[in-house]
Amino acid sequence: MALWMECTHQGCEVNAQPHYLVCPCHGSEFDANGNVVQGPAETNLKTFKVNTDYENIFIYL
Ligand code: FES
């Protein structure tokens, strides 16, 4: 799974921490699967299906 790193609150780019993602604008936090764990965001991050072969990573947009 790939995550779109844009906060669902007002669109700031979220920052990756070792075990979660945090938005620098108003403090929303998301787990490693993009689920909201702290607001003000109310919606999970957008996700995309991912597949791989021996030399490529495919992200289904
Ligand atoms: S834009 Fe991310 S918390 Fe507001």
Q: Could you walk me through the main structural features you see in this protein, from its secondary elements to its overall organization?
A:
The protein is an all-beta fold. The chain has a single domain, classed as Rieske [2Fe-2S] iron-sulphur domain (Rieske Iron-sulfur Protein). The chain contains no helices and seven strands. A four-stranded antiparallel sheet has the order 2-3-4-5, with no helix packed on it. Strand 3 and strand 4 form a beta hairpin. It is elongated, with a radius of gyration of 12 Å. The mean pLDDT is 97. The structure holds FE2/S2 (inorganic) cluster.
Under CATH at level 1, the class stands as: Mainly Beta
Q: How many beta-strand segments?
A: 7
Rg over CA atoms, rounded to whole Å, is 12 Å
Give the termini separation: 11 Å
The CATH topology corresponds to: Rieske Iron-sulfur Protein
Structural class: mainly beta
CATH superfamily: Rieske [2Fe-2S] iron-sulphur domain
The CATH architecture designation is 3-layer Sandwich
Main sheet attributes: strand count, strand direction, barrel closure: 4 strands, antiparallel
How many discrete domains?
1
Biggest sheet strand order reads 2-3-4-5
Discrete helix count: 0
Distinct ligand kinds: FE2/S2 (inorganic) cluster
Enumerate the spans where pLDDT stays under 50 for 5 or more consecutive residues.
Answer: none
Helix content: under 10%
Percent strand:
35-45%
